[in-house]
Amino acid sequence: MAMAAAATATAAHSNVVIRVRVAPSSSLRRSRSKEMWARAMWVRFRAAPDRGRGFASKASPQGQVQAAGQGTGTPSLALQGSGRVPTEKIEHLERLALVNFGSREAVARLEKAIAFAEQLQAVDTDGVEPLESVLENRCLYLRSDNVAEGNCAEELLQNSNHVVEEYFVAPPGNISLPDMVNRIPSPTAE
Amino acid sequence: MATSVLRLGIPGRRWALAWIDGGSRHRSGTQPGPTSNRARGQSSVTQLSLRTAQKPRKGEHKWAAVVGLEIHAQICSNSKLFSGAQVCFAAPPNSLVSFFDASLPGTLPVLNRRCVEAAVMTGLALNCHINRKSLFDRKHYFYADLPAGYQITQQRLPIATNGHLTYSIYIRKKQSQVTTKTVRIKQIQLEQDSGKSLHDDLRSQTLIDLNRAEGQLRVDANISVHHPGEPLGVRTEVKNLNSLRFLAKAIDYEIQRQITELENGGEVLNETRSFDYKLGCTVPMRDKEGKQDYRFMPEPNLPPLVLYDATSLPSDADSQQVINIDQLRDTLPELPSATRERLVQQYGMLPEHSFALLNEVGLLEFFQNVIKETRAEPKKVTNWVLNTFLYYLKQQNLAVSESPVTAGALAELLDLLDSKAVSSAAAKQVFEELWKGQGKTAAQIVSEQQLGLMQDREALEQLCQATIDGHPQTVMDVKKRNPKAINKLIGLVRKASLSRADPTLIKEILEKKLSL
Predict the structure, then answer these.
(1) What gap in Å lies between CA B368 and CA B385, rounded to an integer?
(2) Least C-beta-crowded within 10 Å: which of A74, B175, B274, B301?
(3) CB burial of residue B103 (10 Å; 0-12, 13-18, 19+)
(4) CA B108/CA B301 separation, integer angstroms
(5) Contacts of B205 in chain A (CB under 8 A)
(6) DSSP for B214-270?
(7) pTM greater than 0.90
(8) Nearest-5° angle of CA A158, CA A164, CA A170?
(9) Where are the coiled-coil regions (chain A) (predicted)?
(10) How far is Cα B280 from Cα B238, in angstroms, rounded to an integer?
């Protein structure tokens, strides 16, 4: 993944910092530009849940939080004056992302992450084209239309606990959370 | 999962999705006068919106319906949109699945050049503006047949926008009158398809096949109603429409349902419905959980897709790695509207005829082969192909390729007719015989059954004389200038000649004999 993620932690405890040079992924063949690689800084946290300044870390159970105002038309997660996310919104997010915030503390962490991301609004972007992709200077590689993969059903099916006659098996319908009996049919039902 | 779909809504890994959005609630003010289709092609999703005016009911002001179609069409390619797995119909489950298609961690999408070309050509054929730069996005939702939890689509900036399609329909049931309409195409986008789910209710489980690549064409309809001049109404989406006939029925039903609901003081919910074929009505498809939020985000693994034309093409470009829109435009085959125009100009046929010729698979080619091999007039050929040949095909529900009569055989028959070796009535008989497919040529049938026109004028004159002598009353009527009487005499002579005489010649002889 050629995505740059920067995370900082200001814990006093020692952190292991690894600077990783992320090479261009195999699907992008060439790039002539100087920005060939992205640097990712990994910070390993020690226990303590209250990493105030940090962006949501990958280790947290809440998963990643999308920054507000992506320009996709979805309502911004901008908080109300108090900085609190309304309960209905939390429940909505839980249904959409199949996560379970579980505790007030987890929601607080979400709110802090949003506040952190909101700082982006302070940047004056008048006359600046939005960055849609850090790959924008790369050429999208076009593969020729030849069959080169597939025919590995056996291998793939080994990944599944439960298989019926070369089909993967899934529970019926869509059951969102254990304590919600709401069955949601597929958005693209056959 | 890398089949591509053109969303004209043609979606899918290998599916083209065409999304036609008729009545988005947020469109205000713009009232398309003529029919407007927004086509969003996925793989080509095209969004089309059609408006049909309703008759006024109970003396209230009119209702207008707005319909948008989301068309999902599969791209014809060897491998999938984002992976090198094969595209093939009816293969063993999960046999056409690469690691990427199975969404195994660490796999990445690699775009198929052929799919991009197909999308561009579709856009060009539908008169769209081709975006020189288009972007890929992720559309997130959870379902068992979508192992990644998202599908790669082109929601923000698709490959083609703002096209239109002009089409003709028969007025009412009369096949002879044709009117043209135009539909707007909103956009065409490339999109992945999800897998196939088989629901096993007995064992309470769903079986997943990640091959995809089936169901070449799929349509969803978006329908809303409103009073002309007022803002657009709330729309519903109807899915699960497998044929044009059910599409039409579902749309008609839904329009009526919405009108009835609103006239009774109710409201239309923004929901997804499906069509119950047996009951002929639409039913709500899912719980009222509110609008689905797909949390669109840019696809981080794919840079923007850049297309070039003759002017912008870099000189040192690798031809395999660039797509030249102008080059693709040149490879487009003759589009149907151009073909129809050419037929009307070249052969002097009516527009209705050109439609009929293009509407049947293989018929145009058949027609052109007959034209090539016969010296009969094009109008005669048109007449025989559309009225006789097509009629026989339809009677027995055959395709052109299954026809027992070849183009050459028909051409030969038309030559005989043209040289007046047979009468047109006899020719019909010969055709019937040819249709039996016994391997005889038209000439053979004519001689075997003695259907050839009498060439012996003297014999014909004798026949005419005999008929005159045998029907004095009719002769008197003729002499009295009764117009129908001469036809009766001609008919009698024809019968006597066993349809072997040319009616015009008979008339000429009779008139001479009766000194008319």
Answers:
(1) 10
(2) B175
(3) middle
(4) 7
(5) 164, 169-172
(6) --SEEEEEEEEEE-TTSPP---EEEEEE-SHHHHHHHHHHHHHHHHHHHHTT-----
(7) no
(8) 85
(9) none
(10) 13
Query: Which of B86, B206, B287 is opposite residue A172, by nearest beta carbon?
Result: B206
Residues in A closer than 8 angstroms to B137, CB to CB, are: 72
Per-residue pLDDT tens listing for chain A (190 residues): 333 333 333 333 334 333 333 334 433 334 333 333 333 333 333 333 433 333 333 333 333 333 333 334 334 455 556 678 899 989 888 888 888 988 899 999 999 999 999 998 999 999 998 888 888 888 899 999 999 999 999 999 998 888 999 999 988 765 444 434 444 444 554 4
Element (H, E) at B364: helix B363-373
Q: Does B207 touch chain A (CB under 8 A)?
A: yes
- Chain A residues with CB under 8 Å of B104 CB are 159
Q: How confident is the model at residue B134 (pLDDT cuts 50, 70, 90)?
A: very high
* CA proximity to B390, closest of B419, B416, B413, B361: B361
Q: Say how far apart CA B111 and CA B117 lie, in whole Å.
A: 11
Question: A73 to chain B: which residues are within 8 Å by CB?
Answer: 296
Cα–Cα dist B258/B233, whole Å = 10
Record: contact A152-B97, CB cut-off 8 A: yes
| Whether B201 contacts chain A with CB within 8 A | yes
For residue A12, give both structure tokens: 């006093």
Instruction: Mark yes or no for CB contact B201/A173 under 8 Å.
Output: no
- ∠ CA(B426), CA(B430), CA(B431), 5° rounding? 115
Q: How far is Cα B410 from Cα A104, in angstroms, rounded to an integer?
A: 84
ipTM reported for the complex surpasses 0.85: no
Q: Which amino acid type is present at position B254?
A: E
